[in-house]
Backbone:
């Protein structure tokens, strides 16, 4: 019984180490969100920090509302891509580990 418990604790420690490593890798990754067919692009980290915004000069006219909508859409696109990237990475980390239904990772 002691050996089984020790094995479970060792597996839990290994999984925790894998989670920390995956989280660090995710935070360092970058994704690019875009809208308007690439006229507005947002570079975002895995921590959901915006690093760069590019707006095509052709959009710098009088239509402020459209430009604001395109920037918001590009940010939302980047946020969704970060979420998918994290979900995919965590699926790799938890592969083979039976987690309860609906269990959410802490990141």
Residues:
């Amino acid at each position: 019984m002691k050996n089984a418990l020790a094995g479970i604790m060792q597996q839990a420690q290994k999984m925790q180490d894998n989670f920390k490593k995956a989280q660090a890798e995710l935070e360092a990754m970058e994704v690019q969100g875009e809208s308007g067919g690439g006229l507005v692009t947002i570079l975002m980290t895995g921590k959901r920090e915006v690093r760069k915004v590019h707006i095509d000069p052709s959009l710098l006219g009088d239509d402020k509302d459209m430009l604001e909508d395109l920037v918001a859409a590009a940010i939302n696109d980047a946020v969704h891509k970060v979420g998918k990237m994290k979900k995919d990475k965590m699926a790799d980390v938890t592969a083979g580990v039976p987690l309860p239904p609906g269990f959410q990772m802490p990141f």
